[in-house]
Amino acid sequence: MEEGKLRELKQFIESCRSNPSLLHNPSLSFFKAYLLSLGARIPPQPKTEPGDFYETKPDPPLSAQDDLVESDIELDNADVVEPDNDPPQKMGDPSVEVTEENRNAAQLANVFVKLKKPNAAIRDADTALKINPDSAKGYKIRGMSRAMLGLWEEAASDLHVASKLDYDEELSTVLKKVEPNARKIEEHRRKYDRLRKQKQQKGDPVKTEASVKKEQETETQVQEALSALKDGQVIGIHSTGELEKKLSAASKTSRLAILYFTATWCGPCRFISPIYTSLAEKHPKVVFLKIDIDEARDVAASWNISSVPTFFFVKNGKEVDSVVGADKSTLERKIAQHAGSH
Fold first, then answer.
1. Catalytic residue among 106, 147, 258, 266
2. Is 269 considered catalytic here?
3. Which residues sit opposite 256 in a β-bridge?
4. 102-122 pLDDT, tens digit each
5. pLDDT tops 80 at residue 341
6. Which domains does the chain have, with CATH numbers?
7. 293: helix, coil or strand?
C-alpha cells in the first residue's frame, strides 16, 4: 500500500480509538466485521448520538435588494469545515481489473467524510468513479464532501445523480440541507445576470451632470405635452400648426391619436359625433382630435379628405390605420386594437 494511504489509514485508526462510535456507522460494517472476526471487543453504540452533520435548519431569506452591487448570499454554512490540505495521493489505473481493494475506495472515502476530511474523501470518491462511473456511493460521498466545503451547487449535482442510481434516506436528508443553498446561489446568479443585462441595455449607469439635465428636460417636455392634451375630452383642431402640436405631444407621451374629420352638413357625422365623445371619455389616454373640413380646409387638404366622416389613427407620428364612414363597431374595435399595442 502506498505511504500516503498508510498515513491516512493510521489517522483513521487513531480516530476510531478516540471515538469508537464511528465503528457503528453502517458504511464501516465491513471493517467492524473484520475486527470482530479477529476477536476484538467493540464498545456498544451510544443510546444518543450527536446531531447529524446535515441537520435541517430554517433557510434565511435571500435579500430582495436590486442594487447592481452584489450583496452576499445568506447561506446556511453552519456545518462547513476548513478544507484539509493533505497532499493528494497517486490514483490507481482505472483501466485495470476491479479488485476488492478498488471496491473499497468508496468505503475509504466515506471514512474521510466521517473524519471531516472532505478533500481526501473527494480524491477517493474520484478514484471510485473512475473505476466505476455508475457508483452511487462515489457520487454520494463526493456530494457530501463538497457540501462540507460549501460547494453547494456541485454537491447538489452529485447527490442528484446518486439518488437516481440508488436512492436512500441518508441522501434525502443531505439533499434537504444542500438544495436550499444551491437554489439560493442559482437565484442570486440569475438575478444579477438579469440586472447586468438591463444596465447594458440602458447604457452606463453612472449619470453625468449632462445626462441628468437631459433627463430633466425630457421630463419637462413630457409634462408640457400632457398639459396640452385633455384627457377624456375631444380636442377641436382649427389649423395645421395646431394639429402638428397635438400630434407631437401625443408622440412624446407615446399615446395613440385619432383624427376625426367631420362637417356640419354631414348626416352620418351627426350620428357618430356623440359616440366619438363617449369613446373619448372611455379612453382618457387616447388623444381624440376633431377637424371640421369647412373650418380647417388646409388640414383637410393635407390629409386628402374626400369624404366624411373619416378617421385616421396615428401613433408615434405615423399613420397606422383608418376608418371611413360612421361604423361604430369598427371604430371601437380599431381603438381597442391600437390603444393597447406598443
1. 266
2. yes
3. 315
4. 556 666 666 766 777 888 888
5. no
6. 3-44+52-196 (1.25.40.10), 225-339 (3.40.30.10)
7. coil
